[in-house]
Input
Amino acid sequence: MCQECGCGIVGDVTIDGKTIRRDASHDHEHSPEYAHGHEHDHDHAHDHPHEHPHSHPHPHEPRVVTVEQGILEKNDRLAERNRGYFQAKGLYVLNILASPGAGKTAFIERMVVDLHDQVKAGVIVGDLATDNDAKRLRGRGVPAVQVTTGTTCHLDAEMVALAMRQLDLDALNLLVIENVGNLVCPAAYDLGEDLRVVLLSVTEGEDKPLKYPIIFKSAQVVVVNKMDIAAAVGFDRETTLRNIHRMAPQAIIFETSARTGQGMDAWYRYLDEAIRGHAASTAST
Amino acid sequence: MHEVSLMQDAVILAVKHARQAGGTHIHRLMMRIGPLSGVVPEALEFAFEVVARGTMAEGARLEIERVPIVCHCAACAREFEAADMLCECPECHQPSCEIRRGREMHLMSVEVS
Output
């Protein structure tokens, strides 16, 4: 069974087909081509048998040891490292999150192709299995790396750190990370992105923002996608926008159709300003 | 979410700190969980029994302190405890854009011997 979410899927984490993390949690080897310098301690919860030729004190009085550490601290640390690295490379980074089938890949495909003359974009795509999305993007001339997460229902900062080595980052100024289709787990994992974009399609129901509070609370941008079929599926626009605003008052909302291009211009203008602002702040630091 | 692997990380962290303190047995783990962490305390408790097996935390008690969501309302210039995930200010009923606490997913301490 999947150790992460109990979904029954078993598999390794791979980047463009090469295994970087085995399914069993303790069998954690990196292939030589992914050798990397990050902090990599192998703490484990079991004891190894060991000889005790010397004697040492074994205090038996129970005492409280203060820890005060976040369980995700390691990921947060690696995410900060990614962020610094992206900044040094002058890269603006998007983390795109949505349920399966909301149109993440179509949205990214449209965006990077439309912006081809202004922005040099690369994509890291996360899926449980298959490299279909990376192939699809490469077919459009977009540099793309596929991470298959196997048992893991989200991307984490380490996977991104390893995947980005497969891209020529110096040739890019935008990195788009397409997270695994899931509205629960990816919310907790900082990848080092500059902007977190949550996509919601008109077929998903008006109350989705109320059902998945944490991911919507973490969004800086919410995109309502597939607007071209809104009428056909009886989409209640007013209720949806109200629910997004209630759950994510901090988020800027765009209404788009990645298929027809409707509403994409407003998003591009916002993104363009964000990239310029980021470049200016990076240059001044 | 994926409480089994998170609990596994928590146990690894607990064992590391227990060892550093010269302990060989963990009696109690104290965790602090906020509603916006995404983890369900009941699922952590369920996972704990499984992941602690065979470790020095086997048989230990897991105590989870549930902490509330605390937000700031800019309009009313006050901090408030949110009644639910919507984080609406009890005075002006506007949703808050500033969540100050409630995302905690921490191992606070371990009792060892």
